[in-house]
Amino acid sequence: MDIKIKNATLSLIQGDITLQETDAVVNAANTRLAGGAGVDGAIHATGGPSIMAECRKIGGCPTGQAVITAGGNLKARFVIHTVGPVYQGGGSGEAAQLKSAYLESLKLASARGLKSLAFPAISTGVYAYPLEEAARIALMTVMDYIGEHSDLELVRFVLFSRKMYDIFAGELKKLIQQPEQ
Question: Is residue 76 in some structural domain?
Answer without folding.
Answer: yes
